[in-house]
Amino acid sequence: MFNYDGGRFSRDCGFQEPSKTVPERLTELLKANPGITTKVFEDLATDYQLGRDRARRFLAEGALAKKIQREPGSKNSKRHYLVEADGESQ
Known about the structure:
The chain is α+β, with helices and mostly antiparallel strands. Helices cover about 40% and strands about 20% of the residues. The strands form two sheets. A three-stranded antiparallel β-sheet has the order 3-5-4. Strands 1-2 form a two-stranded antiparallel sheet. α2 crosses α3 (about 50-65).
């Protein structure tokens, strides 16, 4: 990043956090919304420009890998919970 001050440009070499990957951001989204339904999770992912299909695939693959716990919800929906490292869901 460059700054302009008094007729001179200077480079800001300050620390920048590395950007997070889509799966990391989806994991944070699920962690912040335990018990979320598939539809609402997909809508949130779309709002954050992470992609509906990516969100759907993330939930499906996470459930198969037993990293995401699925429970039945109302009207044939599924509720999702992130499984912690010790096997407990949040």
